[in-house]
Amino acid sequence: MADTDPIQPIHEPAVPFLDEEAAWVRDAADRFEGARAEELLAWALDAFHPRIAISAAGGVDGLALMDMAWRINPDVRVFTLDTGRLPPETYALFEAIRERYGIHVEFEVPDGRDVAKLATAYGPNLMYRSVDLRIACCNIRKVEPLKRKLATLDAWIAGLRREQWVSRRNIAKVELDREHGNIVKLNPLADWSLDEVWDYVRTNEVPYHELFDRGFASIGCAPCTRAVLPGEPERAGRWWWEQDTDKECGIHCSVQLLGTKSDREREAEDANAALGGMSA
Predict the structure, then answer these.
(1) Is 253 a catalytic residue?
(2) For residue 252, is it within any domain?
(3) Cα angle 108, 109, 111; round to 5
(4) For residues 104 and 66, what is the distance between their CA atoms, to the nearest angstrom?
(5) Is residue 14 part of a domain?
(6) What is the DSSP letter of 248?
(7) Looking at 137, 224, 249, 253, which residue is catalytic?
(8) How many domains would you assign to the chain?
(9) Helices (DSSP H) in 49-178: which residue ranges?
């Protein structure tokens, strides 16, 4: 493990951080930027367990993190958002996890009344009709259940990587999650490539989602995920009918803040900003 000073976990996640508390999060991000994922996980589990959990939806990144963390602390907690529209292969995966690791994945579900109200008003497949309706569906089935879960934690671990999508390229390995009560969010695989993740999974014989063997690169709800085509980026199979959006559901960033800009628009803004900085 890296030579680091332990920190005290935050036991009141609903209370806003003071500036000095946010400062140590930035310091931790700097400290662990070049560290191995296992080193960051060991530090985090020591500081926050049992009020820390890994978010796993079936993606290979979350599974790699779960395996690493289990080797550090077999009592590691893992949760998933059961939207009610997951493919059956996802449930088979969580059964395999229970059998292999003895981890009882914690299932978070949406409010049934909210789901019924939305489906009655707009139909069960409302996500195909507009981006706004798709985001409304994601909000009820994923964003709100996540908020309820994170309100019980001091920190959470996600399998985000910078290369996954344009909206994730600036993530830090340690972040202050301002959208969820200022708890700590950790992205230990931020600087990993997809090939590195798969190398870990295969080397350590980690159970993985069988849809990956059918051309899928990212796992979500069954109606909203398809296999990717040759040459397409990882998240191209998510909400594939949306050609110019951020490919986010809102659990890792606010889609209202991101908007629905295309990669071309975002890249043009970044280029203009860079030119402005050069001329300043």
Answers:
(1) no
(2) yes
(3) 135
(4) 12
(5) no
(6) -
(7) 249
(8) 1
(9) 60-72, 88-101, 112-122, 131-138, 144-150
Q: How far is CA 11 from the centre of its chain?
A: 22
Per-residue buried b or exposed e for 163-199, using 16+ beta carbons within 10 Å of the residue's own CB: ebbbbbeebbbbbbbebbbbbbbbbbbbbbeeeebbe
Q: Which domain holds residue 62?
A: 19-279
Q: How far apart are CA 217 and CA 79, in angstroms?
A: 21
pLDDT digits (tens, 9 = 90+) for 251-280: 554 333 333 344 444 444 544 554 454 444
For the whole model, what pTM was predicted?
0.79
For 166-211, the pLDDT digits (tens) are: 666 788 899 888 888 889 999 999 999 999 999 999 999 999 999 9
CATH code assigned at 273: 3.40.50.620
Q: Find tokens 């960033």 and name the residue.
A: 253
Does 1 map to a domain?
Answer: no
Report yes or no on 210 lying in a domain. Answer: yes
The two structure tokens encoding residue 263:
């990669």
